[in-house]
């Protein structure tokens, strides 16, 4: 009985071992397995790697010559033998698939069964650093993030070359195994924000992460909100500036954008170019952007409400112009507005999806032709056409692309409520929007700060931008360990040479 029992146990052990051996065999065409013999010791060893993700030049120049002619007795001597910094020796078979498909070479030596060496030889295929396309600025640096995580970290490190800048890395995605770097300033940041980000990323259950937008949606405080909860940027200078304020930055491998949090609604109307301009000019531009966004949202609903319910409130001279412009228009104001708004959105979407040169032509020519034709055909009034065109132009003033999409979407609920109840409907829709914004949070911080809860000291760099000498303290809502950025008293002193 003992003989059969031992035989059964041995058979079970072999069954458990067999799949592990099988996993090393190249099943995919780009998986290469080659065996070699060391010329000095006669030791046999094998290399297994994925040819499409490793740099074969590294293998031929830095790895193979030393392995074929070098003097090593055990697999443990590989670290001293090879001129490669990233070499890991392990007995964990579970790491094989994870490592070789991430650009590592698997080395096995016949004398050390059960031990594996992983040698880094990743192939880097990236584009060169170029100027920002979405957050373009006339003044300031002309560098933007690219799809390489290491290169993006280099761009940030170049601006913050201090040991206080901490980089932590996680791997997310069951299939993609995407690297995500979490950056923060150790002596400034509120560690609760860092722990919140880490906890949300570690608890993610998703198979494939291709871009930072996936991460933004998956770890957002409110996934049902049309408002972006994290600030999305392609500018390394903006990321570095946010880190110095005490925020957390997430950089995703394969994405040319970084995520910044916690953030507030007013930050989406701040262009980083504002800091390169005089504070008076920068304040003017910020107020102009906020006014433009409000105008873009309410001008068409006000037109619909006034002509449907409140024409008595319109001055006679203006009313005469509106009546003359609508002569012969068979559609009610709401349908007239919807036709034009949807037409503008179609032109914008077509221009964005088509190749650059064709898209520009479609946007300009299409807008002129369709607008002129619709007025001449009597489908819309020329006054509403002007309002819709100005509203579309005003929505382009937002420096962050994602908040621009939100503004485009919000106009339609306001239009519907304006048709239902007029000005009362617009006020009711505004109350719903305000309630939603008050309840929103970014990493648990108020989304409407410093308006709600009111923190007047934080207004110095939101709607307006005061001079740098007035910004000695970091924002209160971030609860940073270091409240002061510099001494405001010393900043005001200007000592000339002759003094």
Automatic annotation (TrEMBL):
Task: Tell me which GO cellular component terms the UniProt record holds.
Answer: plasma membrane
InterPro entries assigned to the protein according to its UniProt record, in alphabetical order: Spore_Ger (IPR004995), UPF0353/GerABKA_families (IPR050768)
For region Disordered, the annotated ranges are 1-28
Tell me if Transmembrane helix is a UniProt keyword of this record.
Answer: yes
Q: Does the keyword rRNA processing apply?
A: no
Membrane topology field: Multi-pass membrane protein
Keywords of the record, alphabetical order, are: Membrane, Transmembrane, Transmembrane helix
Q: Where is the composition biased (Basic and acidic residues)?
A: 18-28
Q: Composition bias, kind Basic residues: at what positions? A: 1-10
Subcellular location per the Swiss-Prot or TrEMBL entry: Cell membrane; Membrane
Q: What is its main location?
A: membrane
A GO term (biological process) for this protein?
A: spore germination
Tell me where the transmembrane regions lie.
287-309, 383-401, 413-438
Source species, domain of life: Bacteria
The entry's family comment says:
Belongs to the GerABKA family.
Name of this chain's protein:
Spore germination protein
């Amino acid at each position: 009985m003992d003989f059969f029992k031992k035989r059964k146990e041995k058979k079970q052990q072999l069954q458990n071992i067999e799949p592990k051996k099988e996993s090393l065999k190249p099943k995919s065409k780009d998986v290469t397995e080659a065996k070699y013999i060391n010329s000095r010791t006669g030791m046999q060893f094998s290399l297994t790697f994925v040819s499409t993700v490793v740099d074969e030049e590294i293998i031929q120049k830095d790895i193979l010559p030393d392995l074929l002619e070098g003097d090593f007795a055990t697999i443990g001597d590989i670290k001293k033998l090879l001129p490669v910094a990233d070499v890991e020796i392990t007995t964990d078979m579970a790491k094989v698939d994870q490592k070789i498909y991430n650009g590592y070479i698997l080395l096995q030596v016949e004398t050390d069964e059960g031990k594996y060496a992983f040698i880094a030889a990743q192939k880097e295929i990236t584009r060169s650093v170029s100027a920002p396309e979405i957050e373009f600025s006339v003044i300031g640096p002309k560098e933007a993030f690219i799809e390489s995580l290491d290169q993006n970290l280099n761009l940030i490190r170049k601006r913050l070359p201090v040991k206080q800048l901490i980089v932590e890395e996680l791997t997310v995605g069951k299939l993609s195994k995407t690297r995500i770097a979490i950056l923060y300033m150790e002596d400034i940041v509120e560690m609760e924000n860092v722990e919140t980000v880490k906890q949300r990323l570690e608890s993610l259950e998703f198979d494939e992460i291709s871009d930072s937008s996936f991460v933004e949606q998956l770890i957002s405080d409110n996934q049902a909100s049309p408002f972006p909860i994290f600030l999305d940027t392609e500018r390394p200078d903006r990321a570095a500036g946010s880190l110095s304020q005490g925020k957390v930055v997430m950089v995703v491998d394969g994405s040319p954008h970084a995520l910044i949090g916690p953030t507030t609604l007013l930050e989406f109307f701040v262009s980083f170019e504002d800091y390169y301009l005089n504070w008076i000019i920068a304040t003017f531009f910020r107020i102009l952007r906020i006014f433009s966004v409000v105008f873009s949202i309410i001008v068409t609903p006000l037109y619909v409400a006034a002509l449907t319910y409140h024409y008595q409130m319109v001055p006679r001279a203006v009313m005469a112009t509106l009546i003359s412009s609508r002569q012969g228009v068979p559609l009610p104001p709401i349908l007239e507005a919807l036709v034009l708004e949807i037409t503008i959105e179609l032109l914008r979407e077509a221009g964005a999806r088509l190749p650059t040169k064709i898209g520009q032509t479609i946007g300009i020519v299409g807008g002129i032709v369709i607008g002129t034709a619709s007025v001449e055909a009597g489908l819309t009034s020329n006054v509403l056409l002007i309002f819709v065109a100005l509203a579309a132009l005003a929505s382009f003033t937002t420096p962050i692309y994602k908040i621009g999409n939100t503004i485009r979407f919000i106009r339609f609920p306001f239009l519907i409520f304006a048709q239902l109840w007029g000005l009362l409907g617009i006020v009711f829709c505004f109350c719903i929007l305000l309630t939603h914004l008050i309840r929103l949070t970014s990493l648990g911080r108020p989304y409407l700060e410093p308006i709600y809860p009111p923190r007047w000291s934080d207004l110095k760099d939101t709607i307006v931008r005061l001079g740098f000498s007035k910004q000695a303290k970091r924002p209160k809502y971030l609860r940073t360990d270091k409240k002061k950025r510099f001494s405001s008293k010393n900043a005001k002193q200007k000592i000339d040479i002759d003094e």
